[in-house]
Amino acid sequence: MKFFVDTADITEIKELQATGLLDGVTTNPSLIMKANRPMKEVVAEICAVVDGPVSAEVTATETDAMIREGKILAEIADNVCIKVPLTLDGLKACKALTGEGFLVNVTLCFSAVQALLAAKAGATFISPFIGRLDDINLDGMALIADIRRIYDNYGFDTEILAASVRTMNHVREAALIGADVATVPPATLKGLVKHPLTDKGLDAFLADWKKTGQTIA
Ligand code: E4P
Q1: CATH code at 91?
Q2: 195 lies in a domain?
Q3: By C-alpha distance, which of 92, 131, 137 is closest to 109?
Q4: For residue 40, what are the domain limits?
Q5: Shortest-distance Cα residue to atom 5 of ligand 1
Q6: How far apart are CA 207 and CA 198, in angstroms?
Q7: Residue 217 resides in a domain
Q8: Angle 95-99-104 from CA coordinates, rounded to 5°
Q9: Is 159:181 a contact under the CB 8 Å cutoff?
Q10: Ligand 1: which atom is nearest the Cα of residue 55?
Q11: What's a BP term from Gene Ontology annotated to this protein (predicted)?
Q12: What is the ipTM metric for this complex?
């Protein structure tokens, strides 16, 4: 499973890039707002730090304008992935942009049939939002499983990018189902390494080691 980080915070991205665990980045207009920086500038900086796909979202709602914006974003760097919303206009833009060889992430997916349409439109990534479905008492993980099955049934290459990930369990379950990627907020991504028994075990080993009076030299 690939890990993308869901943020436009360059400090967090640099820190995670140094771990070697990062395969890409996703941003959206809300995350750009939080970063409080010009979008093109921040996307350029992220693309220079991370080798993998960096999703940058169009804000137009009509196909031709989405294509125009998408191409402007793609000029920032070779690893920009144009993010379009899952609307009919977005799917048309997706078809046109992937047809020209651009990477496209179709976002705001909340149903399996939406994901089927995105794959038919040639999407590079489909982003089903787990957490936002869970928020309204629907089953975000069931959506990931449905999409996995549909894509496998028909041999679609579109990668399932589990989005709106909130917990360690979301990552675990999405990995068990076979999502290709999880995009995870920085704090949740860093939290994946933690286990209380790891900390407890390490404390005990270090305490015993100290008692031996030895050093490794
Ligand atoms: C995905 O690309 C989105 O940016 C993101 O995962 C949305 O997550 P949220 O529901 O926590 O805002």
Answers
A1: 3.20.20.70
A2: yes
A3: 131
A4: 2-212
A5: 164
A6: 14
A7: no
A8: 60
A9: yes
A10: 2
A11: ketone catabolic process
A12: 0.97
The full DSSP string for 134-159 is HHTT--HHHHHHHHHHHHHHHT--PE
97 Cα–ligand 1 center, Å: 22
pTM: 0.96
Instruction: Identify the H or E element spanning 97.
Output: helix 88-99
User: How far is the CA of 206 from the CAs of 195, 197, 198, 202, 216, in angstroms?
Assistant: 17, 14, 12, 6, 13
| Number of domains composing the chain | 1
Catalogue the active-site residues: 83
Question: Do residues 119 and 158 make contact, with C-beta atoms less than 8 angstroms apart?
Answer: yes
| 90-106 pLDDT tens trace | 999 999 999 999 999 99
- Yes or no: say if 171 and 194 are a contact pair by the CB < 8 Å rule: no
Q: Tens of pLDDT along 147-156?
A: 999 999 999 9
Whether the CB of 129 sits within 6 Å of ligand 1: yes
Determine the pLDDT at residue 161. 98
Q: Which backbone phi and psi does 158 adopt, to 5 degrees?
A: -50, 130
